[in-house]
Design goal:
Blueprint (H helix, E strand, L loop, with lengths): L17 H6 L15 E4 L4 E12 L2 E6 L2 E6 L5 E3 L15 E8 L6 E9 H22 L5 E11 L2 E6 L2 E15 L15 E9 L2 E9 L10
Parallel strand pairs: 4-7, 5-7, 10-12
Antiparallel strand pairs: 1-2, 2-3, 2-6, 3-4, 6-7, 8-9, 8-11, 9-10, 11-12
Length: 228
């Protein structure tokens, strides 16, 4: 039968019995939902599955409060980071987020995991909520009637204005104050992240070749959101 908590001796200084691990644990405050409990499982080859709460975040490393105390998690360039909205930037994760980690217990450092996958459940929920809110907001805007959808290629980016080429026709686009600007996945996107040559969808009013955009969706930007 597979035990919930099993620590194997894999290197000098890491041989810790389960009872000693818990008895000698640091005082740790963790927050987990019933569906995502705090977990620490280590197999005979040092493969680890851990869930816990982020204590701190830096470039390439996070610390996580879980069973036994605070663990250092090395997140190298080859590690998979989820949700995809974070791109490869773990600094999108925040202290207090609930995360899952897969990887291997380090042979050279105690209380350290070399991660192959890091998943931020809190961030995923926030991204899902933001996406749903942006879609709902866009639907409400498009029900207003008069504006029209334009799909083309952006150029001449200049602050809150640019040009959009649609089937050979060039329009001037002015992004209205408070306009909704999102990426392909409907995650909020800074306007400055739109580049010349991107495929862009505009919802707005055309007045003599100038579109006042109420919704700007850059479908060339799919995974990374720079707002959290």
């Amino acid at each position: 039968m597979k035990k919930t908590l099993y620590i194997a001796s894999i290197a000098a200084g890491i041989a810790i019995a389960a009872t000693a691990l818990i008895a000698g644990a640091q005082t740790v405050t963790t927050t987990a939902s019933p569906s995502q409990p705090v977990i620490l499982q280590v197999g005979p080859a040092g493969k680890v599955l851990m869930r816990g709460t982020v204590a701190s975040v830096a470039s390439g490393v996070i610390t996580v409060n879980s069973w036994g105390g605070t663990w250092i998690v090395n997140v190298g360039a080859s590690a998979q980071i989820l949700p995809a909205a974070a791109g490869t930037d773990i600094t999108q994760f925040k202290a207090g987020d609930f995360v899952g980690v897969q990887g291997t217990v380090s042979r050279s450092a105690t209380w350290t995991i070399d991660a192959t996958l890091v998943r931020d459940w809190t961030y995923r929920a926030a991204v899902t909520q933001e996406r749903q809110q942006n879609i709902q907001s866009a639907q409400n805007t498009m029900r207003s009637g008069e504006p029209k959808n334009y799909v083309g290629v952006s150029s001449n980016m200049n602050g809150s204005s640019f040009t959009l080429t649609v089937d050979g026709t060039v329009y001037a686009v002015n992004v209205a104050a408070g306009a909704e600007v999102v990426n392909e996945n409907w995650i909020t996107l800074p306007l400055v992240s739109i580049s010349n040559g991107d495929n862009v969808r505009i919802w707005g009013v055309n007045a003599s070749g100038t579109i006042t955009a109420q919704i700007v969706r850059d479908v060339s930007v799919s995974a990374t959101s720079t707002k959290r």
